[in-house]
Design a protein that fits this description.
Shape: globular
Keywords: ATP-binding, Cytoplasm, Kinase, Magnesium, Metal-binding, Nucleotide-binding, Transferase
CATH superfamily of the largest domain: ATPase, nucleotide binding domain
Structural class: alpha/beta
Function: Catalyzes the formation of acetyl phosphate from acetate and ATP. Can also catalyze the reverse reaction.
Distance between the termini: 16 Å
Largest sheet: 8 strands, mixed
Helix content: 25-40%
Pathway: Metabolic intermediate biosynthesis; acetyl-CoA biosynthesis; acetyl-CoA from acetate: step 1/2
Strand content: 15-25%
CATH topology of the largest domain: Nucleotidyltransferase, domain 5
Radius of gyration: 21 Å
Protein name: Acetate kinase
Order of helices and strands: EEEEEHEEHHEHHHEEEHHHHHEHHHEEH
CATH architecture of the largest domain: 2-Layer Sandwich
Strand order of the largest sheet: 5-4-3-2-1-6-8-7
Pfam families: Acetate_kinase
């Protein structure tokens, strides 16, 4: 089955054309600068690449351009859009309503619209992508794969905030978590690498421009670092992560900020960028640290320290650990961050092998010492595969 995977953002969209049964990707790419001018970056075949400048005033023109590129010209990989059998959508916020991926229906779209205040930048764009695909490819089944779904197994004492209970019953204010498709994929890969399906205690660190940690017991999430929105938890590229409410109030008073202005700072001007003053890209900050920039050094130390604190707390929540996993752009490539996170965790059974850690590879690998009682894995995430596979299973009726 050919599945068209779509991740529609506010001004960009990523796509992939895949057969999840044989795990073959025929094409992938991204549309950028939607609403400004439009750039389509398309990869197909054995690493062939195209960059196409095409007007994209709206998402409709962007998706139309992708479908045209897939079916005609130099980047062609299929004869017709009729070859596409289903569309899988990355959908960000499913609230408590969606604990698994679902076939898109009018009721599902209405529920997503109702949940949009919880993800105002993401859900409307996701819905727009769904509706455009329904228009351009009528009759094709669409499936929504929610970032929050994997975390719906958290117990109430883990997802509740210590606010008046009415804030939860009236407004749904609680921890939801994100990056669920990645945490699901990586934790299951780790279970396979452990050759152990029962009594597995796994901590997954998804580290990129957006980052989160999850505690996974026997394949089910019992806690995660992100909360009602993706701002909570770890220090990220431009997001602050955990900040006390008193500090937020004090900053607002001193700088004469509205709540929207304060949240804009916490979402877009904080994190690695805010502390280093250099970049939100950790690679540039690591380079700055090596050149003696003390603010870059501080940012790197903070990133690793905060991850390490979450790892330790989740080992406690799991009553031990069988595997610690690193994934995402930073998790897969930043050996120094992995080294700093694992330093001193010997008492938890986590002992990193410096030679294995420094060895670069695109494959999943074990970087712990032979004597480590718990394993340390680097596992490249495959969120698009999870979306495509869930879409295939739902459309074919086999279930996840």
């Amino acid at each position: 089955m050919l599945v068209f995977v779509l991740n529609a953002g506010s001004s960009s969209l990523k796509y992939q054309l895949m057969n999840p049964v044989i795990k073959k990707v025929f094409a992938s790419g991204i549309c950028e600068r939607i609403g400004i001018d439009g750039v389509l970056k398309h990869e197909y075949g054995d690493g062939k690449k195209l960059v196409i400048n095409v007007p994209m005033p709206t998402h409709k023109e962007a998706i139309s351009a992708v479908l045209s590129t897939l079916t005609a010209g130099e980047g062609k990989v299929i004869d017709s859009i009729n070859d596409i059998e289903a569309i899988g959508h990355r959908t960000v916020h499913g609230g408590e309503e969606f604990a698994s991926s679902v076939l898109i229906t009018p009721d599902v779209i209405e529920t997503m619209k109702r949940l949009s205040p919880l993800a105002p930048l993401h859900n409307p764009a996701n819905i727009l992508g769904i509706e455009i695909c329904q228009e351009l490819m009528p009759g094709k089944p669409n499936v929504g794969v929610f970032d929050t779904a994997f975390h719906q197994t958290m117990p109430d004492y883990a997802y509740m905030y210590a606010l008046p209970y009415e804030m939860y019953t009236k407004h749904g204010i609680r921890k939801y978590g994100f990056h669920g498709t990645s945490h699901y994929f990586v934790s299951n890969e780790a279970r396979a690498m452990l050759e152990k399906k029962q009594n597995t205690r796994i901590v997954v660190c998804h580290l990129g421009n957006g980052s989160s940690v999850s505690a996974v017991l026997n394949g089910k999430c019992i806690d995660t670092s992100m909360g009602l929105t993706p701002i909570q938890g770890l220090m990220m590229g431009t997001r602050s992560g955990d900040v006390g409410a008193g500090a937020l109030q004090y900053m607002m008073a001193k700088e004469n900020l509205t709540i929207d202005q304060a949240l804009d700072i916490m979402n877009k001007k904080s994190g690695i960028l805010g502390v280093s003053g250099k970049s939100s890209d950790l690679r540039e900050v690591l380079e700055g640290m090596q050149n003696g920039d003390d603010r870059c050094r501080l940012a790197v130390d903070m990133v690793a320290y905060i991850i390490k604190k979450y790892v330790g707390s989740y080992v406690a929540a799991l009553d031990g650990i069988d595997a610690l996993c690193f994934t995402g752009g930073i998790g897969e490539n930043a050996a120094l961050i992995r080294e700093k996170v694992c330093a001193g965790l010997d008492s938890m059974g986590l002992v990193i092998d410096p030679v294995k850690n420094d060895r670069r590879s695109s494959a999943a690998r074990d970087i712990s010492t032979n004597g480590s009682t718990a394993r340390i894995f680097v596992i490249p995430t495959q969120e698009e595969y999870v979306i495509a596979n869930d879409t295939y299973n739902i459309v074919s009726g086999t279930g996840r």
